[in-house]
Design a protein that fits this description.
By secondary structure, this protein is of the alpha+beta class. Helix content is 38%, strand content 29%.
Length: 203
């Protein structure tokens, strides 16, 4: 009976020692890889911002923004070139996700973002709104995003928002579409009247 016990004890003593040096090297290598990937992403972000350097500064909220028609609390999920949901815009902080407070008035859309740059979309710059499921880096169930299309400088932009109460989205689409349609009709009428007056005066 004794010899088997001796062999068992010898087997236990000869168990391999954990290779701590190998494990530490593997963990360090993994951390270096993660940092490298993060650095590449950051450089790509900066490069994209440089390419979008011609985008004008974002409009600030006017002193008299008008009476609120709708308000919304939720999240801002980013902006892209209109119609190209993967072409993210990062200039002027538009690529920074954040909480958001939206207010729609007859003057336009006020976007307040705690911890990020606020901006204002004048009514004349609004091009409409729709419900969608995705914008660069964020995909939600169908209709989970409120996409507002607006013009800034020479570029049309899609900005994605999600209310804390998604049932509010349809009312926002209707109100923004109505405001943008009314504003464009007024602008076109004013332009047509001005051109007619100038033509009559030249005769």
């Amino acid at each position: 009976m004794i010899p088997p016990l001796i062999h068992l004890a010898a087997a236990q003593k000869s168990a391999p020692v954990t290779d701590w040096a190998g494990r530490i090297a593997w963990v360090v290598g993994l951390l270096v890889f993660v940092v490298f990937v993060y650095w590449l992403m950051r450089q790509g972000w900066k490069w994209r911002g440089t390419l979008q350097g011609d985008l004008p500064e974002l409009p600030a909220t006017p002193d008299e923004p008008g009476e609120p028609e709708l308000t919304l609390s939720g999240r801002y999920h980013g902006s892209t070139t209109a119609g190209q949901w993967l072409d993210r815009i990062v200039a002027h902080g538009l690529g920074t996700r954040s909480r958001v407070e939206l207010t729609l008035t007859d003057q336009g859309l006020d976007v307040v973002r705690p911890g990020a740059q606020d901006f204002f979309v004048p009514a004349a710059a609004l091009r409409g709104a729709r419900l969608d499921k995705g914008i660069a880096g964020k995909v939600l169930p169908e209709g989970g995003l409120l996409i507002v299309t607006w013009r800034h400088g020479d570029k049309e932009i899609d900005s994605g928002f999600r209310s804390d109460k998604a049932t509010e989205h349809p009312a926002w689409v209707e109100a923004i579409d109505r405001l943008s349609t009314t504003e464009h009709s007024t602008t076109e009428h004013h332009t047509s009247t001005t051109e007619h007056t100038e033509t009559e005066g030249a005769r």
